[in-house]
C-alpha cells in the first residue's frame, strides 16, 4: 500500500511554528525517500488542528484527494504533540474518523510524537552543565494522565517539572527550588517549536530575573528540528504499520 503522511500541529497565529513544521515535513520526506522503492512517491504534508480556515478532517480529505492521482492509497496522520492531552487523544482521532466517513481514501492515526521513547534523548541534548537544579517546563494538560509522560521524563533525567497552563507554575517551582538552596536553575521548555508561548515563557523568565537577582536562571531552547527528530518521526510513521 502506498501511503502519504500528514504531520498535524496545534495551529497558531504566529507563523513560526507552521514554517518549522513545513521544513520538518520536507526533511521527513527526504529521509523517507531514501527508504522507499525507486519510483514510489513520497508525500509528506502538514495540517493544523486549530486556527485554520478549514477543519482538520477537511484538510485531511483535501490532502488525500490531491495526491490520489499520484497513486496514494492511504493517509497516515501523525500528531506533532508532546503529551497525551485532549487534542492528541480525543480531538485528532475524532477528526480522522470524520475524514474517513467523508472520503474514499483511508486515513489512519500514528502514535503522537511524545509517545516515542527516543524523544527523551533528543530533549536531553538541550541540557547544560554546572546547574544546581533543572526543570522541564511543559504546556500541561487537565486531562487525567495527560502530564504523566512529562513526569516520567523528569524522573528519568532526575529533574523537576513545571507547567504553563496547570500547577505547579514556573514561578512556584522556581520559588520552591530557591527554598532548597538552589541559586542556578535551568529551565528547559518542553515545546517542539518557538512561538507565542515560548515568547511568553521568555518574558516570564526575564521578569523573574529582575525579581530574583541573586538567582541565575538559564532558559533553554525548544526541541526544534534535528536529524534525530526526523528519525523519530520516520520510525513512528513506518514502524507503527509495518
Can you describe what's shown?
This protein has 242 residues and is an alpha/beta fold. Helices cover 43% and strands 18% of the residues. Helix 1 crosses helix 8 and helix 2 (56-68) crosses helix 3 (86-102). The chain has helices spanning 15-33, 56-68, 86-102, 119-124, 148-157, 170-179, 196-211, 227-239; strands at 3-9, 44-48, 74-79, 106-109, 133-138, 160-163, 184-190, 216-219. The longest helix is centred in the first third of the chain and has 19 residues, at 15-33. A four-stranded parallel β-sheet has the order 2-1-3-4, with helices on both faces. Strands 6-5-7-8 form a four-stranded parallel β-sheet, with helices on both faces. The chain is elongated, with a radius of gyration of 19 Å. The model has no long low-confidence stretch (mean pLDDT 93). The protein has eight helices and eight strands.
Amino acid at each position: 500500500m502506498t501511503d502519504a503522511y500528514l504531520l498535524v500541529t496545534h495551529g497558531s497565529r504566529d507563523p513560526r511554528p507552521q514554517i518549522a513544521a513545513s521544513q520538518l515535513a520536507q526533511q521527513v520526506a527526504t529521509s523517507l525517500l531514501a527508504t522507499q522503492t525507486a519510483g514510489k512517491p513520497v508525500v509528506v504534508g502538514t495540517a493544523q488542528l486549530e486556527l485554520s480556515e478549514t477543519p482538520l478532517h477537511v484538510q485531511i480529505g483535501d490532502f488525500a484527494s490531491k495526491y490520489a492521482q499520484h497513486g496514494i492509497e492511504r493517509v497516515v496522520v501523525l500528531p506533532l504533540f508532546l503529551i497525551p492531552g485532549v487534542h492528541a487523544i480525543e480531538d485528532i482521532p475524532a477528526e480522522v474518523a470524520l475524514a474517513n466517513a467523508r472520503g474514499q481514501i483511508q486515513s489512519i492515526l500514528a502514535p503522537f510524537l511524545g509517545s516515542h521513547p527516543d524523544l527523551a534523548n533528543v530533549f536531553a541534548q538541550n541540557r547544560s552543565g554546572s546547574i544546581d537544579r533543572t526543570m522541564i517546563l511543559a504546556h500541561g494538560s487537565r486531562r487525567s494522565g495527560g502530564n504523566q509522560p512529562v513526569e516520567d521524563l523528569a524522573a528519568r533525567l532526575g529533574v523537576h517539572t513545571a507547567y504553563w497552563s496547570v500547577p505547579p507554575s514556573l514561578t512556584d517551582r522556581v520559588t520552591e527550588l530557591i527554598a532548597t538552596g538552589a541559586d542556578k536553575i535551568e529551565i528547559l521548555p518542553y515545546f517542539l517549536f518557538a512561538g507565542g508561548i515560548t515568547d511568553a515563557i521568555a518574558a516570564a523568565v526575564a521578569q523573574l530575573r529582575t525579581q530574583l537577582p541573586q538567582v541565575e536562571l538559564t532558559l533553554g531552547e525548544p526541541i526544534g528540528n534535528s536529524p534525530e527528530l526526523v528519525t523519530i518521526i520516520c520510525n513512528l510513521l513506518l514502524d507503527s504499520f509495518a
